[in-house]
Amino acid sequence: MTWLVTGAGGMLGTDLLARLPGDAVAPKRGELDLTDASAVRDALRLHRPGVVLNCAAWTAVDDAETREDEALAVNGTAVAALAEGCAEIGARLVQLSTDYVFDGAGAEPYPEDHPTDPVNAYGRTKLAGERAVLAYERGYVVRTAWLYGAHGPNFVQAMVRLAAERETVDVVDDQTGQPTWTGDLADRVAALAARAASGEAPPGVYHGTSAGRTTWYGLAREVFTLLGLDPGRVRPTTSDRFVRPAARPAFSVLGHARWAEAGLEPMRGWREALHAAWPSLRAAAVTEVPAQGNPPGGSPP
């Protein structure tokens, strides 16, 4: 069976591509414009994949506030065209989505069937993509959040850099979520896709985040600890200190009950995953990443 992976050059896509068995087609952005419905159909007809995994997305959360039409073209309209193309050839479609489809006003983990209510333009465009995929009988949505990894800018790498540049770092302590390693998520998505291909995983929504919960402040302290530094150098602050165009959900903890229906276990705890990922993360620390708040896009892709 052939896999087709869009957005394979991104942080999650890179890890996912490395974990798929057999043949995988991974067109680069310049080779396949997802906003060109005809090009998408032609690519699907040419390669005839059994499963399409869409990691491509507009992830510039703040820019989406003033460029929502452009974000929707990628996150919504293009996904609908991809679903239509998959229906034509009978392929299964796995769409990566985000915690931003929720309003962040909860206090308990959001189950997969919780009503959606995005608070920003990015969330609205991602929700449009979800709806297009879920209207397709072979469509799967994997929502994730607070991603970090070795192959792209993210919060963990930002903390590694700032630890070397500043004596203290102010990090928000009023946003709660689940830091999620792209390596763990890629393992789970690859397993889900394989079980989907064999008919062993029911279509629908799955939540792909690490177990447990913390704040950005808590995550930053753990990074400093792993660096062998005093976590007291990380100082808690509030989101109103960092005003941004797009509202961020204050609570982004997702429930994981649906994995059992696919015969798969949820992911391990966020702290255990961070420790496992640490050697590759420290080696890949980048220089141009946000100093606080959420990783670019807040979630994937």
UniProtKB/TrEMBL annotation:
Record-linked InterPro entries: dTDP_dehydrorham_reduct, NAD(P)-bd_dom_sf, RmlD-like-bd
EC number(s) on file: 1.1.1.133
Secretion signal span: none
Keyword Oxidoreductase attached: yes
Pathway: Carbohydrate biosynthesis; dTDP-L-rhamnose biosynthesis
Gene Ontology CC annotation, any one: cytosol
Gene3D superfamilies: NAD(P)-binding Rossmann-like Domain, UDP-galactose 4-epimerase, domain 1
Entry GO MF terms: dTDP-4-dehydrorhamnose reductase activity
Function: Catalyzes the reduction of dTDP-6-deoxy-L-lyxo-4-hexulose to yield dTDP-L-rhamnose.
Family statement: Belongs to the dTDP-4-dehydrorhamnose reductase family.
Protein name: dTDP-4-dehydrorhamnose reductase
Organism of derivation: Actinomadura litoris
